[in-house]
Design brief:
alpha+beta; 15 helices; 20 strands; about 35% helix; globular
Length: about 450
């Protein structure tokens, strides 16, 4: 290595191996820096990871990515992930089973925006008024360039554009809850429009739905860690950072009373709560607010291996008064043959559902599936598991102020899906934040600044 290259190579600690931390670690490694990645748990991925439930490897939440997730797809490629193998790519769709009195909306593989026009014309389960309302909303959003002068709730936005009750129930409400994990009456209309802009309002492939075939830890975090290690970095699992401190222009990272290390820079890529604790003693500039949070619950139900749904996933009509909690059901067997007969049901904004208790919630969801899919045998699964993330995402409310990646110290940055972004708390916003944090450090250490 040349003397100039040696001067450029910095030692950098990335604290937290969720998707933001893994993205930062990969980008810093690609830039030639020496990275040490710390993770307090024994599993990589943060709030999007695999969990071992009595010998079964399940995700802590079923996710859908979008073709619009350009930064995630770029980094997948950078670490050698074959996305054709790791992800099932489906066209934009909202398809309800027969027992839901829903709709059937599928975008054909045609150039944008023709794919949406054809999907709307072909859609079943929507009246002429519903289709006109959807077309009117789409046209108005494009005319406004997907921007609001003043943010408001999604419900207010939909009312403003005279969206029908049926369209709200079958299209806008499930999309809002799936994307923002916040009920429409409390969700930010501007953030919702941003998501629609980059999916419905962009090229056709941007609206594609990408469903992981492998568990979330394997999908990216483990591949990112392997990439860092293969390029001379260090991965420390089960290592909880207790404190960071300014150390003569560098940063001391303290694990416990007997182990610490000094680095040229630090990326704090933990949860917002933990980041606030770590940063409290070193900077007042990076004030991290006390966010309100929303829960996400996934119910896994195992049936005989020959159990198969008509589609890889269906939308469901949730009705809490009727005991119907599920919003989407995924046939894991169509994603991974090793999981044949396994169904995953997503319950976003699930605080009330959790209060029922695992056994009661599993039974209610099984009954909902049996009715919605018109498959009575689904009432009695062989086993079920409930996995809840009680602080899965922040509540994405209107005009919410979110902090930036940079701090008053150019060699101390933050990364996380809660930071300022056009997006809500998604995998893409986490990856984008990690990449942005890495870029800030790379610019600081670039030869042009010497």
């Amino acid at each position: 290595m040349s003397e100039a290259a040696s001067r450029m190579k910095q030692t950098i600690a990335v604290i937290g191996a969720g998707w933001a931390g893994c993205a930062a670690a990969v980008e810093l490694t690609r830039a030639g820096h020496q990275v040490t990645l710390y993770e307090s748990s024994r599993t990589l991925g943060g709030r999007a990871r695999a969990v071992d439930m009595q010998g079964k490897i399940l995700d802590n939440g079923q996710h859908i990515l979008l073709g619009a997730y350009a930064e995630s797809l770029r980094l997948f490629k950078a670490v050698g992930i074959d996305t054709d193998q790791a992800l099932l790519r489906l066209p934009l769709q909202m398809r309800y089973p027969a027992g839901c009195d829903g709709m059937d909306f599928v975008a054909p593989r045609l150039p944008a925006p023709l794919h949406l026009l054809v999907a709307l014309l072909r859609a079943k389960g929507l009246t002429g008024s519903d289709k006109m309302a959807l077309a009117r909303f789409s046209s108005a959003a494009r005319w406004m360039d997907w921007k609001l002068n003043t943010d408001c709730s999604v419900s207010e936005l939909l009312h403003r554009f005279d969206q029908t009750e049926r369209l709200i129930k079958l299209m806008w409400q499930p999309l809002c809850i799936a994307a923002l994990n916040t009920p429409p009456e409390r969700a930010s209309a501007q953030i919702f429009l941003n998501v629609l802009r980059d999916s419905l309002g962009a090229r056709r492939s941007a609206s594609d739905m990408l469903i992981p075939r492998v568990d979330l830890t394997t999908l990216f975090p483990q591949q990112a860690a392997n990439f860092v290690a293969q390029h001379g970095g260090t991965i420390k699992i089960g290592a909880t950072v207790q404190k960071i401190a300014d150390c003569n222009g560098k940063w001391s990272v303290l694990l416990d009373k007997t182990e610490d290390a000094v680095y040229d820079a630090v990326v704090v890529a933990t949860s917002a709560t933990q980041a606030a604790i770590l940063l409290a003693d070193v900077t007042m500039d990076a004030a991290i607010p006390a966010f309100e949070y929303e829960a996400i619950t996934t119910c896994y139900l195992q049936y005989p291996a020959d159990t198969r749904l008509a589609l890889p996933f269906h939308a469901l009509t949730d009705d809490t008064d009727a005991g119907c909690w599920g919003q989407f059901v995924f046939d894991r067997g169509q994603l991974d043959h090793a999981q044949s007969g396994l169904l995953a049901v997503v319950v976003s904004t699930s605080t009330s559902a959790i209060e029922m208790g695992h056994e009661a919630l599993s039974a209610a969801i099984a009954a909902q599936l049996a009715h919605a899919l018109q498959m009575p045998q689904l009432t009695n699964p062989e086993w079920s598991r409930i996995i809840s993330e009680k602080r899965a995402t922040f509540s994405c409310t209107p005009a919410l102020q979110r902090p930036e990646e940079k701090t008053e110290f150019p060699h101390l940055v933050i990364a996380g899906d809660y930071l300022a972004s056009d997006y809500p708390a998604t995998l893409e916003s986490a990856v984008c934040s990690g990449a942005k944090a890495a870029t800030l450090l790379c610019k600081h250490f670039s030869p042009a600044k010497k």
